[in-house]
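Ticket #4471: structure output looks truncated?

Reporter: J.K.
Steps to reproduce: submitted the chain below (636 residues) through the standard prediction queue, then opened the result file.
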Amino acid sequence: MKNEIILAFNEVLEEKGLPKEVIYHALESAMVSAYRKSLNASTAQQVVAKIDLDKGEFRIFAEKEVVQSVQDDRTEVVLDVAREYDANANLGDMVLVESTPENFGRVAAQTARQVIQQKIREAERQMQLDYYAKQIGEIISGVVQATGSHGLTIGLEMKAEGTMPRKEMISFERFRIHDRVRALVAEVKDSPRGPQIILSRTHRDFLRRLLENEVPEIFHGIVEIRSIAREPGQRAKVAVSATQQGIDPVGACVGQRGVRIQAIVRELHDEKIDVIEWNKDPRIYIAKALSPARVNGVYLNETSSEAKTALVVVPEDQLSLAIGRDGQNARLAARLTGWRIDIKSLSEAVSDWLFALQNEERFAEKAELFQNEAAKAEEIMARKTEGRILNMEDYDTLAKFVDLMERGLYAERQEIIAAREKVVQEALQTIPKPAFNVTLNEDILPQSVLTILGESGIQNLGDLALEYKTNPDSILGLPGIGPKTLKKIEEVVEDLSQFIPAEPEPAPIEAEITEEIVEPAVEQIETETAGAEVVVEIPESVSEMGEAEPEKTAESETEKPKDNELSFEEMFKIETQKINGKSFEDEEQEDSTDKDDKKKKKRKFQEIEYDPDRDLTLVKKKHKRGDSDWGLEDES
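Returned output as attached by the reporter:
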């Protein structure tokens, strides 16, 4: 029996590939369940199983009450037996006592089978869940096990199964059983039947991962994917940029003779892929996003409250190409760039501007200012309406007319944006900064109002005040906000301080450090410089603060000769600086930096003297607390 347990344990380990501790705990749980079932023990009674895998032995310990005479051996034990397991046991105590029944091995094996299998299944599912949760967003491969109207069932590693719903499959793709499929792990969910692994071939990140696998420059970060827009099975647009100079991002993705991109196209069953270069200028970026169509001009409108809009003017022969089949090209370009794109032909744009100049009052001044240009454009459009052929110069004239009008309109929009920004900045100056850290709650406004404001993006007190002061009509236009609610919001905005918690006062800054640095320096100058001809002090703490100008005593300034004549000591000091390249003050400062940092606060000054008898220069360094001084001899 012992060998059978060891062999069975090792066999399960090898077959399931599970950790040893998982199987060990499963066996313990199975033994406890078997004991409770065989003896009909209560679930309230503590039962512990201990298994020695080396010896192949197992024992069951049950909690029993210590009594003088046993009436039910399942729950009671005498004192002598109890003290074999707990020397401090007394009558009335609860003690864990070995209670392994006879012939328990066979009974346990039969009873524990289902428990062990259940524990093993749970451990396998948990391992699968943990493994594939880390694979979300990555490409994995599997074998088709079943097909149906719901989608595919795909066998994966670790005996797991993944599902690919019909909406996650490319519309015209057909797979057979035993076909190998590559897909993206889109979602992993836990369920009673095990982990549900949702696979996708239509997700845009599937194309991203394919590009990373096929293009080493993307994998290593030399080329970066900025944006992806995709209609699975039909067309996709990818915007890329280089992170290093001298790299062609589009060429790196396409590869020599299109080898790299063709491998991805085959994987996606001939899905067309346009690779364009990303540009920080939205006009250039939008023009490239509409490729392969040629563009005459891109004109931005950022004043729209709904979305950023771009008007794209294209030649007439490029209009259908820019829009694409069923609007596909324009739709993908809008998703790629994040701009709403309106496409017009050149003649349509000219006609719209001529009509606006003639009929709209807000363009009356512009119509008078550009009267000649409008007349030329109108004459060219008249010839086109008559069916006469226009040359390239005529088309250039029309394009310049549209560009002139649109650029003027763009300048007006920029003025509106600047004025709006000015209003926002002025409003921000009246709103305390802590208000942006106060989350709106029921103490400020009712819950119904908070829900409406939260859906519109207003989450804190500062945002509410800013929106009210810059554009109160936008708040009134929210569904469920009426004049009474707006009045309540006005009361909140006018007195923001009542909702902002008081900030703790900053601790007072002690002035002891300043006094310690400045005062001794002044005293030292007054006391130590008496009778000296030229005394210069450079406290190191002051020089560290950026005050490099040495202070001179009043006596030294009075003794300085007039008419800019230098004394003998000062002339000698200048000559010494020329020879050494550094002043004595700089040398003193460099010497002090090599010493311990704790000595930096000591105040030092020096006195320069010249001994004509010995023809030597003496540099005397004096210390405030020292009674002696020492000098350095310098041969001149």
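Triage note (M.O.): checked the attachment and the full token line is present. Residues 392-429 form the longest helix (38 residues).
Status: closed, working as intended.
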